[in-house]
Amino acid sequence: MNEERKIKVLVCKPGLDGHDRGAKVLARALRDAGMEVIYTGIHQTPDDVVNTVIQEDPDAVMLSMLSGSHNALCPLIMEKLKEHGIDDVLVAVGGIIPDGDKVFLEKHGLKGFYGPGTDLKTIVEFVKNNLKR
Question: pTM score, two decimals?
């Protein structure tokens, strides 16, 4: 029997933001959609995120950030991924991301932006439809 491998998603809370309810809700929705989900918990550094990507080899990384530090931390995470030769993982960010910041973050390789209240099915479909595997 040839079963397709489950999509593996890493859900991370980089920075000092301690509000993780949305990340936990997202992790559960992704799991309920049949994906393998790893949730790293709060207060992850960019190095923590990248080291977990190296160890777990996910298909997608979903960053959850409500602290306003997305313009500092997201590019740093993307830079560190490139330093390790990781360019085949889908990276998206959720939180309060102003439209002007989305353009900046896209230039650094982030592909999706989801704010509070986004329908979880939308995010699940985004992951399924945008993988590089």
Answer: 0.93
